Amino acid sequence: MPNDKHRKINQTENQDNNQDNSQGNNASPWQSVVNDWSADKQSFDMPWGKLMMWIFLLSDTFIFSIFLTSYMNVRMSATAAWPNPSEVFALTIAGHHIPLVLIAIMTFILITSSGTMAMAVNYAYQGNKKKTVYLMLATALLGASFIGMQAFEWTKLIVEEGVRPWENPMGANQFGAAFFMITGFHGLHVSAGVIYLSVIAKRVSQGKYDKQGYHIVEITGLYWHFVDLVWVFIFAFFYLW
Amino acid sequence: MKQPTETQHVASQPEQHPISLYLKVWLLLFVLSACSYMVDYFQFQGVLRWTLILAFMFLKAGLIIMIFMHLAWERMAVKLLLFLPPIAILIFIALMSSEADYVFITRILSFFNP
Lengths: 241, 114
Known about the structure:
Chain A is an all-alpha fold. Helix content of chain A is 71%, strand content 2%.
């Protein structure tokens, strides 16, 4: 027991050195939760900007979940046939009819942008400013190309297929409402992310974070990975289901 | 309460991982995305289709959250903060799906049953 007590005191006073606890090396993860919440200091040991970003992303999770849930609701209750997304989003490239090809390319682009962002965060903590800026700009560029493809997809659906938020010549009218709402809100997030990334990349290159450290790159990264994460769910539920 | 403030600055820098880890996860995400695209390409239907879609989706989401967003290396308190509230979403989905069934049956009965 004395040993145990000693360890607890050690943890509350010196939590940061015990970060490996969360991996289960010393105390149990549950013990670390109790320690974090009962210690006479802030419960979450991270920069406030990062914690606020996590909380914002949690609230955003709820927003997108509600969109996807309402989509589930209208799709399940629609009496008209739901259009087959595989056919709706097919393209004919060089004489070949390929189902869902544009969406697949968009998925690969967003995953690639997440990869470049993860590396940007890594280089930022290493203090390699040049590589950080280039990788962040590459991420923003990939995001911009994603928006471009989405604009193409919307144009095709609106102009050629005649889909509107209130009607859909291919079947259930709710398809249009769900499609424009969900992909539109996601596209808005990507657009905001591109602006956010460009601004932070510019400020990193100007050396504005040299003194305070590069947590801001990780925070930007959290937002960008979340946008990719949401797309994983939209891809599965809207385009593949 | 003199020492902690000193250690805080050093330790608040998260631990670093080799770039190769991110490249491996990236490759894995590519393969998983290709797999989920194949589900559609080969037109699997029914329960097999839904199981595969969900499996690939959760694997991809897990990789992004745990590795790219570094949640695997965060403390348990942070994981609870992020994973406990969405349970409410699961309950909401269950409620709305039963509600959708009800609306569907009501529509069939009142619109298609003269």
